[in-house]
């Protein structure tokens, strides 16, 4: 129902508006505002046209001149031709050849050939005649007012009566096209049409291979009367027709029914999927309702609303609910819901204020139980977490202050737990120099280099609550945690002895809470047999901590020169840094931040003591135990080579090739510790090869102390355990133990990687500057990324290699995987996409391997999705129309993972 009404409504409305108004001209249009852009040299005559005084129409006409019509015609005909022109003064006929142009009031016409009959007030235009391509070259293009141009094989226009006739017109509006047949302009803004094809194909007749043929009809300003019309594919008429139609011609979106798809699911039975109704509320908002019904009693309901206010904001809201009977007959159904919301605000709408939302929340089993609502998307079916955030930000111009308020949601689908932040408030002050003056003259004094900052963050948080308990009364009353944290950093930076950079400072952190905890043991409990009892103690409690630091660094450059070969030099840049930090032991009882739970002593069992922080379960934690007073050291290195310029390089500038973009080694020695003062040695680095096309990252950790292996017997079984001793490995002539190491390499390759093209900066290319058609297509891509396939890129390849290793002497583990993804265009119309992960250690492919095949059918798209093996093995074949307004017009055939018993 929606398809038929939508086709006829747009076909008749589009024909009427473009043909009837193509020649009505109440106003005037400048000569420069024409379809084909004017050239200053070629069109100098037309640009310099001036109205001759009292020049009668019958006095003759020459191309490139103005003519003042006689009688009731008061406008001027302006004409020019690139090739040649001829005027028959006797018969009052003018002929224009080769890129001819005529401008009459606000009517504009370009064509290869134009004939002007001054006696009968007629203008005739056609393209260059070609026996094979018909009027392919130089076809007439006519335009009136702000209407879109109309292309045709030929046209005849009476500029006195404003009547006209168009043969094989071709025009577009909102992704829909009119071509073929004839259109005749009538008085009173009416148009008669005959055998016009309305379709989604931008190729003109006869290349158009799908559409609705409107045999006869009359279009008026507020209503459309249509005669017989039928559906046609590849020139073959189908038995889908109506004898007549009478429709209003609204200026807003049209509502209608969305046709469903039919099929069978092994677990849910026969289905009627995605039956819906579209409501175009206004130009800024629409709503789509969809439902899926299954023969075994299951159903799915969803509502999607898109909204957009140009230069203001835009977004998408979807509410989904499903009830599925996957169990035995009589078992209760599985009920799931989900809400997704995305919202973005134009940065220029409210300067200094931002608002955005990205919400994805619902039951943990929604994606697994409702695969049809998400088009059997593999990433959605296998995801483990859902996250949401709603953010409001405010900055005050001319001040260092900014405010951010956010609501957060995190959901673990595996553990079925939910974490909420209701809300989180952050207030920050950028670093300022309180002792410096804006009108200072001369260099800064040492005290004027002191910088101070401030940040405050506060939250109300419900952490890891089971889904079944989320909406109970105890969740917000007993499990809600709140707190506030203030941070004040103070720093000063200066240069010492010209080559050294010195910085010093400190940080003070203050935390406020409305509750703490207390741990205790039951009376008479046996040592090690019971866990302590944790009680929540209400009441305000504060915790303050501070730390001091200082550091000094410099840069050392070393270069090795080469006299032979293309390699001229290798330069290494080394950045050593020494730092000192101090933090007192906040576990001391005098602070009151740490307490000890002690069990009752009993014979023959001794007592048990457990030190704990009273802020252990607080949202921002509390001060940690242990005094720290030590020196940290780090060493950062970069190495690059200098090569001679290539023979084709005329600049003569040597080439710089990075060998190692960063290699850092760091550790810390704590003088306040009673043993094992040296921390683990950390190492990390990164570089790129093949002209920055392949990125490499690596990191590792070394234990500088000796580790001994000891044996023990438990239950008659020999077991090994390790023990670190306070003795450095170097003292025994051994290299520190490599505890863990990771290596990753990634590359994204395509033809532009090897032959980069200079990107053009398009002014106004923002969300606010998009046309309505671009906004519709962008919304479609955001809701279904697979709807867009770029055939302009012949191939893409993404490589991601990952290796990890861990070792504690007794046990060692490693993983070695390679992920491949990309696409390749077999021809200009065929593209194959692939995505897989190969485990090099196990020598097998991941079960999430997928392939996709796309065929560009011009105004149609054919896609095949295939998961060849694994639990989610399936295939899906879809044929759909490209036009965004007709996305519901598609044919699908699938065998999803719920039908694996019959999958071959």
TrEMBL record:
Coiled coil region boundaries: none
All copies of domain LPS-assembly protein LptD central, residue ranges: 224-705
Signal sequence region: 1-22
Any matching Pfam family: LptD_2
Keyword Metal-binding: no
GO cellular component assignments: cell outer membrane; transporter complex
Alphabetically ordered keywords of this record: Signal
PANTHER family reported in the protein's UniProt record: LPS-ASSEMBLY PROTEIN (PTHR30189), LPS-ASSEMBLY PROTEIN LPTD (PTHR30189:SF1)
Protein name as it appears in the record: LPS-assembly protein LptD central domain-containing protein
Provenance organism: Mucilaginibacter pedocola
